[in-house]
Amino acid sequence: MKKIKNSFEQLFIAAHLIKWMLIVIPVSLTVGSLVALFLWLLDKVTLLRYQNPWLLFLLPFAGIFIYFLYKLIGKNSEAGNNLIMDEIHEPGGGIPARMAPLVLITTIITHLFGGSAGREGTAVQIGGSLANLLGKWFRLDKEDIKIVLMTGIGAGFGAVFGTPLTGAIFALEVLAIGRIKYNALLPCLMASVFADIVCSAWGIHHTQYHIALLQTAASVIPFIHFDLLLLCKVIIAGIVFGLTGYLFSELSHTIKAYSNKWISIKWLIPFIGGIIIIGLTYLLGTRDYLGLGVTNPSATGVSIVSCFHIGGADSLSWFWKLLFTTITLSMGFKGGEVTPLFFIGAALGNTIAMLTGAPVDLLAGLGFIAVFAGATNTPIACTLMGVELFGGEHILYYAVACFTAYYFSGHSGIYTSQRITVSKTIIPDDADDTTLKKFRERLRNKT
Questions:
Q1: What is the pLDDT of residues 399-414, one digit of tens each?
Q2: Based on C-alpha coordinates, what's the Rg of the chain?
């Protein structure tokens, strides 16, 4: 039988892919449709918040509601993306089907009342939860459950951002630092592409970003076909983007740890978090750092879109968005980190461009993808995201910024269940084959 299988290997491969296409289609249909509903609701509640500024004052009470909702019916859903990663690495308790509706509802509540959060975490949890449910219905074995969970991640990510290739690679790359398993390559790509198509079929439109810079100055050295000075600026910016990704991750974990340590009545954590967000909003005198931040109803307000233009961000806009987001998500509210990371990176890129004389739109775009790369340890996916969102003209700069940010973010990240399979440094005994959470604990014990 083994000889026959080896002789007709391509036929078995074709059968394998047909099997996964049949599995992926219902995953993509359900995930793409639910992500479309989520994005539609997100637009509606964001507009409602713009029209009713007083809703911000209810944010602390919304936090209490979210806390008790998860406490009463959440089971282990609160672990979110980390639970999905744990199930892929070591299948065990499973992912509750209730995760999808819970995270959808609570993310919408967070945005309605002004919490600074994103949407990727919600989409990935929707994808993972539904994929796990379908995997059980199809009676898949443990190895196939791992793959179907990865297709759920790819479907959710690809649909929510309209970046199907990035979604597929993200699902493969985010699980472990330094290793990509290719056994789920085509299933993840099929899931991400199909889910994006389904989401678009429901009439969902994604924000269009544009880097107007068509070409950079030629090098004075004839055999170098790119702007060497600009590349040096991109390297420096990549270092800063990586350090910012590190800051975001570490501040998120620190706020969560200390709020749980110092506040014994747990429902007070989101309540106090909401109070702090309200206080910061009025201290700064702006609402630019609430919600998603993709666009802004004010023509003079700061948003991701405005960061691609000269004067589109203040010098500390990136820091304020970072602070608002880490407080929101670390103190009990729900949503993703990635869209705020886009804002942080684009605003920081705008600031660096103004200081160095580099093209503002290019640096904003590089910050957009590179801070994300540093905080999630996914440099390849983020480089591809640059191509899907901004075009491939400047792919060298995308890669340099993302790869540099990846290294300079160190062994940190927003997903504590992400595994370190190949260390970024030459300290394998301290890092290899462990999760980021355990690695952080080892460092704390040493100090």
A1: 999 999 999 999 999 9
A2: 22
